[in-house]
């Protein structure tokens, strides 16, 4: 009987995990099902481009996984019973609800936008955490006339990329950035200086140390009562994980992330692995890994190799999960690459300008290419299944 592996979510981490597992396990022994609500891969790191009217290259899963043995199931996950080892899904074409049993589960549903309970945000703000939100923002921006104001709330990577992309694509609009703190306060002095230079060149107004406490259709309100006009408000203050696991018996953090060990295995349910934004994993310096493609990709490799090792009696992997840089698009012609320590602290070295923009573009293309080529540079060794994850290597420790 085939070992049933279900991967929930086909973002960067889920797609990589599924593809890597298909290259590691013999097809007669393992059935790999990838559950996703959309038929093609979404480059989440490019949503600010999609929102400003740029068309992205289609990447259908039918082509990406052709000949791999991975079965794509187009469905929305509606429930998870970690004790019964079943997933409930609703077919996207209206064929009904189905319960899928699994032997091993890879949970990679990722995250969505986090409106943080601020009044009016859910009703009036736009988000770019996924394709539907980016397309909705695209329509909203297209309706604006020259001189109208767009307010981007949030000074992290998503907020910076959204503000600069909009300002570059629509120089006829007034773009405002509301930051709860100092602009680029996590960057090195050189990084902050370049960021401020680009922001100034693009004509973006910045409100620092500004907490937005309310959103209306035509304005945002700050903690001190100031009203900032906003024909469009883009909410980019962070992400929240999919809420489905809160209703399960899986051990999760207060933010709803699944607590995992160094091999991305659930500490409460050994047949469940979590990767990407959905997982609470520890990185260098015993610090939690932040939600990012940079750490999520390595986590997906770690999980896939660990599952394969435990099923086939192989050696558990030790994939170093560390950071190298933070890549920030500042429009299509400018960028900032902030180099960091292994535990994600900024150092003095940066790359800026057009060269940084090219670097970031190569990173984005490389990430998408890596989804379709999860074992590039490594020998393809499809091994026979000899046991179950719980029985094979469960007592072996691995460090990240």
UniProtKB/TrEMBL annotation:
Organism: Microbispora rosea
Keywords assigned: FAD, Flavoprotein, Oxidoreductase
Molecular function as annotated in GO: NAD(P)H dehydrogenase (quinone) activity
Name of this protein: NADH dehydrogenase, FAD-containing subunit
Keyword Membrane: no
Family of the protein in this entry: Belongs to the NADH dehydrogenase family.
GO biological process, alphabetically ordered: aerobic electron transport chain
KW Oxidoreductase (keyword) present: yes
Matching InterPro entries: FAD/NAD-bd_sf, FAD/NAD-binding_dom, NADH-Q_oxidoreductase
Domain FAD/NAD(P)-binding: 4-304
Lineage summary: Bacteria, Bacillati, Actinomycetota, Actinomycetes, Streptosporangiales
Superkingdom of origin organism: Bacteria
Cofactors (names): FAD
């Amino acid at each position: 009987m085939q070992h049933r592996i279900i991967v929930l979510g086909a973002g960067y981490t889920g797609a990589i995990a599924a593809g890597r597992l298909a290259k590691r396990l013999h097809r007669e022994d393992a059935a790999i099902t990838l559950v996703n609500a959309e038929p093609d891969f979404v480059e989440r790191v490019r949503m600010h481009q999609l929102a400003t009217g740029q068309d992205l290259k289609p990447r259908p899963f039918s082509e990406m996984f052709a000949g791999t043995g991975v079965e794509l199931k187009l469905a929305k996950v509606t429930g998870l019973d970690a004790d019964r080892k079943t997933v409930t899904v609703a077919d996207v074409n209206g064929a009904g609800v189905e319960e899928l049993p699994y032997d091993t589960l890879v949970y990679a549903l990722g995250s969505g936008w986090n409106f943080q309970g601020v009044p009016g945000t859910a009703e009036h703000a736009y988000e770019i955490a996924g394709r539907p939100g980016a397309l909705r923002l695209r329509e909203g921006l297209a309706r604006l006339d020259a001189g109208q104001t767009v307010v981007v709330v949030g000074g992290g990577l998503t907020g910076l990329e959204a503000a600069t992309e909009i300002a570059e694509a629509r120089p006829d609009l007034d773009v405002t950035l509301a930051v709860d703190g100092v602009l680029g306060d996590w960057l090195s002095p050189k990084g902050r200086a370049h960021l401020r230079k680009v922001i100034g060149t693009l004509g973006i107004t910045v409100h620092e140390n500004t907490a937005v406490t309310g959103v209306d259709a035509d304005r945002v309100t700050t903690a001190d009562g100031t009203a900032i006009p906003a024909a469009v408000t883009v909410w980019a203050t962070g992400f929240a994980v999919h809420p489905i696991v809160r209703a399960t018996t899986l051990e999760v953090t207060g933010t709803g992330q699944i607590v995992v060990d160094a091999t991305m295995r659930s500490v409460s349910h050994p047949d469940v692995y979590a990767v990407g934004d959905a997982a609470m994993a520890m990185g260098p310096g015993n610090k939690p890994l932040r939600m990012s493609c940079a750490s999520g990709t390595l986590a997906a490799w770690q999980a896939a190799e660990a599952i394969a090792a435990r099923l086939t009696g192989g050696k558990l992997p030790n994939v170093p999960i560390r950071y190298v840089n933070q890549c920030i698009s500042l429009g299509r012609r400018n960028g900032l690459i902030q180099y960091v320590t292994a535990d994600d602290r900024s150092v003095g070295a940066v790359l800026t300008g057009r060269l940084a923009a090219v670097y970031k573009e190569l990173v984005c293309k490389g990430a998408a290419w890596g989804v379709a080529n999860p074992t590039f540079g490594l020998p393809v060794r499809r091994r026979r299944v000899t046991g179950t994850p719980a029985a094979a290597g469960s007592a072996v420790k691995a460090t990240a």
